[in-house]
Write a structure and sequence with these properties.
256 residues, alpha/beta, Glycerol-3-phosphate (1)-acyltransferase, two-stranded antiparallel ribbon, 17% strand, globular
Length: 256
């Protein structure tokens, strides 16, 4: 199997040039992901729902504030399909070279509509978290309660005629404990940041489950129908919440 970086470079999308020191990132991220998968005793279901070709939008729940869920999903999708998975990520990752280089090597791209549409047109897999930072940075007291979905993923699916694969991640909520969400309104309007209890990840057992693909039976013009888009987003959120509840009821332990 090709390594993930070969797949990224052969995907037809230009990666940023790297200096000699940054070449370390070719090996470090994959080693780190393999280590994390073992550390969390990662269990995976539904990999048969990941297509071997064509544009795909993977929509997981978001939690744990650290971004480990995004990293592991990207690694896992490549491991199972030999395809690059591009994670639409907060723009903070791309503010400096120190963070943008490893972000690109992990398959992260800035979360903009243009990026999502461009990559789907090139028949790529993108990973998009519908809850955004409100899911990732929510306090642990709201663990596994899906926050309101942003509707951009539905519009992307309609405009590019791409299937959606709802995905649930169990375990990230207990890996990093978040005391509360900090909302800034005076100077940084709309920004949300976490107040974590721990930075080193706790050894919670993880499970990732890919649900059945959803192919929306509408033409691209339907993306302009706000009511329809809202209804689809809520329906997918309901399916994911039901699957999360089901997995939590089956779970026998968190750390042991």
């Amino acid at each position: 199997m090709k390594n993930i970086w070969q797949s990224l470079e052969e995907s037809g999308i230009q990666l940023p040039s790297l200096d000699s020191n940054a070449m370390l990132y070719k090996a470090i991220p994959q080693f780190f992901m393999e280590l994390m998968a073992k550390y969390f005793r990662l269990n995976v279901e539904g990999v048969e729902n990941l297509p071997k070709e064509g544009p795909v939008i993977v929509t997981p729940n978001h939690s744990g504030f650290s971004g480990l869920d995004a990293m592991l999903l990207s690694y896992l999708i490549h491991q199972q399909t030999s395809r690059a998975a591009w994670v639409l990520t907060h723009h903070f990752w791309f503010l400096t070279k120190a963070t943008s280089i490893p972000a690109h090597k992990l398959g992260f791209i800035e979360a903009t509509k243009k990026n999502g549409k461009d990559y789907l047109k090139k028949k790529q897999i993108i990973v998009l978290f519908p809850e955004g930072e409100y899911g990732n940075f929510k306090p642990t007291t709201k663990a596994y309660r899906l926050q309101e979905f942003k509707r951009g993923f539905v519009r992307l699916a309609l405009e590019t005629q791409s299937p959606i694969i709802p995905t649930i991640v169990i375990g990230a909520e207990e890996t990093h404990i978040n005391l509360r969400s900090l909302k800034f309104t005076k100077y940084l309007r709309g920004m949300v940041l976490p107040l974590p209890l721990n930075f080193l990840p706790l050894p919670a057992k993880w499970k990732i489950r890919f649900l059945e693909p959803i192919k929306l039976p509408y033409k691209p013009e339907a993306a302009k129908d706000k009511e329809l888009v809202h209804e689809i987003a809520n329906d997918i959120r309901g399916k994911m919440q039901a699957a999360i509840t089901e997995e939590l009821q089956k779970r026998e332990s968190i750390y042991f």
